[in-house]
Sequence to fold (284 residues):
Amino acid sequence: MIVVTGASGNIGRGLVGQLLAEGAQVRALTRNPERAGLPEAAESVRADLTDSVSLERAFQGAESLYLNLAAGGSTVVGQVVDAAVKAGIRRVVLNSSLSVTDTPADDEGFISRMHVLAERAIRASGLEWTFVRGGMYATNTLQWAEGIRAAGAVHGPYPEAVAAPVHEADLAAVTARALLDRSGAHLGTAPYVTGPQAVTQAGQVAAIGRAIGRELRFETVSPEAAAEAMAAPGFPKEAALQLIGYLGASVGTEPLITDEVQRITGRPARTFEDWARDHADDFR
Fold:
């Protein structure tokens, strides 16, 4: 049995489907199973990562756990790991971040600190582990959907900021391989998972426009204004400013691009053009 936290999220939903397709038993954790729309073959369970009692029930009889901090925040890591150990779970695959560098700098940034503290707790637990350190998520651009639908425009700083956006289906595929691994090849590894191509923010907007058949505009705003708009419950302005700082620092650079999707899954990583076509309806 594999437990998937954040099962109704962008990565979790695809992961549940991929694991079921390979014959795995899946227990999908969500706050609202009735509205989650998950496959019937999955055991959908109501669970809250901040509630140790519900965790104990959710983890019983499971062998492996996919942990996504978006499902509960970094403050729950200790009790989640403790509950996993008590339930007899052997393996944890953590949805981590490219911002983790295994250097002292990891303790300085909001995003890297959140993930590195989780990595350290899992390392110290004695559980088998794999940390999937994902790069810039292509799904981050879903925040542009309202402006695109309403006015054909994206408002943000640094149109020439560059990244290698990674498709959530590729993150799910890498995670599935780590969860299903029987050879031990992925144990104790922390692959950096990126998309296959460098794309500027303006280029991402253009790709979405091609996918939906509209000419879109990128309208530049200040970093401060962008952070205010981006901040949300669970994603404070501090984190938004740090993310925007990464964008500014990337202008004129070459982003890290790895072949980990190909190496681990045996298929090429999906491009941002692929992602835009897959999500065209989200922007119409």
